[in-house]
Amino acid sequence: MNNETACAIISASETASDLRKEFICAYDGLHQSMLKSPLPVLLFVVVVFLVMFLVQRAANIPHHQASSKIRENHNEHTDSKS
């Protein structure tokens, strides 16, 4: 089995466009750098936790308190009209 990269294989192809060759070679370079360094994986994990924290904070809105105040104001307003 050959250990050729996708970049080497696609570069040898005559039918592939230059844009496709550049994209495949850039992807191979990114893949190799991610295998050599754990920094991108750690950055990804940190971003996932940040998004999870923000979603939890946004979902933690006290809806029941706001609706009870609206009902109280409505009841006071209707009582004053009578």
Please explain how this structure is put together.
This protein is mostly helical and 82 residues long. It has 2 domains: 1-36, no CATH class; 42-82. It has helices at residues 6-12, 18-36, 39-59, 63-81. The longest helix has 21 residues, at 39-59. The protein is elongated. The model has no long low-confidence stretch (mean pLDDT 81).
The low-confidence parts are none
The general outline is elongated
What is the H/E order? HHHH
Mean of all residue-level pLDDT scores: 81
Helix content: over 70%
Secondary structural class: mainly alpha
What kind of sheet is the major sheet?
Answer: none
Task: State the end-to-end distance.
Answer: 89 Å
How are the SSEs ordered, and which strands pair?
Elements: H1 6-12, H2 18-36, H3 39-59, H4 63-81
Helix pairs in contact: 1-2
Summarize it.
By secondary structure, the protein is an all-alpha fold. It contains 4 helices and no strands. The chain is elongated, with a radius of gyration of 29 Å.
